[in-house]
Specification:
Elements: H1 3-13, H2 18-25, H3 29-36, H4 44-54, H5 58-61, H6 71-84, H7 91-100, H8 110-127
Length: about 130
């Protein structure tokens, strides 16, 4: 699958309209259309903005990582990596969440990982006062 195809596949999977993706990535809607229709390869700058808007890495869009996984599983791992980058969680909690990212029921968005992490922290507080 080409980067162009991956952009469209992720956009559709995330239920974003091309205009929404264009707004989030700060590019024109026609640029998204040209990329998705394979009439233009995105520049590195635009690919990075699109990746950020889709909550994936440029490596994922280029097919360098997670290319062998079904899209839902790949997006769970991608969004986990983006979530984990902020460094707010202790290593042991990140390890637990990393294992969860391999499950089919793992969150597929950064917000989903934030919510799960908050709920786990709340649960730990209730169980171990």
């Amino acid at each position: 699958m080409t980067a162009n195809q991956r952009v469209k596949a992720v956009r559709v999977y995330r239920k974003l309209k091309s205009k929404e993706l264009a707004r989030k990535a700060n590019v024109s809607p026609s640029e998204i259309s040209l990329i998705e229709s394979k009439m233009r390869m995105p520049s590195i700058d635009i690919l990075q903005r699109i990746a950020a808007a889709l909550e994936v890495s440029t490596s994922f869009l280029l097919g360098e990582i997670h290319a062998d996984l079904p899209l839902g599983e790949a997006l769970a791992r991608e969004s986990f990596h983006i979530f984990a980058r902020d460094g707010r969680l202790p290593p042991e909690e990140l390890d637990r969440l990393r294992e969860l990212s391999k499950k089919t029921s793992a969150p597929q968005s950064v917000q989903g990982w934030r919510d799960l992490s908050s709920n786990l922290a709340l649960y730990q507080t209730l169980v171990n006062p």
